[in-house]
Specification:
By secondary structure, this protein is α+β, with helices and mostly antiparallel strands. It contains 2 helices and 7 strands. Its EC number is 3.6.1.55.
């Protein structure tokens, strides 16, 4: 049985040497886990286009992508998530929680204090070493 591949993107939004971390709603898949915000790619989108769209949809915020961090994958029971993570900065003044239950700005050195979704962990390890 082959696992469904789910291509997603995530943003490590950095401001004042802190990273924006979002907690998934309890009523969603992987509820309660923390994640770098983002979402699924749609057909015909580049990862960068998808990331800009997802941050607008989920947080009513605008970002500028700075650079690429990594790609990681994780086999969940619902499929294999393949996630590309990018460092980004806010270009708008707001971040509204439209789909998440909580958020926090954390110093890079404290990222490992949260219970991250498994696919986010490799990016979090890389970011926390910067």
């Amino acid at each position: 049985m082959s696992n469904k591949i789910i291509n997603v993107v995530a943003a490590a939004i950095i401001k004042d040497n802190k990273v924006f971390c979002a907690q998934r709603a309890n009523n969603k898949s992987l509820g309660g886990y923390w994640e770098l915000p983002g979402g699924k790619l749609e057909i015909g989108e580049s990862p960068e286009q998808a990331l800009i769209r997802e941050i607008k949809e989920e947080f009513n915020a605008d970002i500028e992508i700075i650079d690429y961090v990594n790609e990681a994958s994780y086999d969940y029971d619902f499929g294999t998530v393949v996630m590309k993570t990018y460092r980004a900065k806010l270009t708008s003044n707001n971040l509204e929680l439209l789909e998440h239950q909580d958020s926090i700005w954390l110093e890079l050195s404290k990222l490992n204090t949260l219970n991250w979704a498994p696919v986010d962990r490799p990016a979090v390890r890389l970011l926390s070493k910067k």
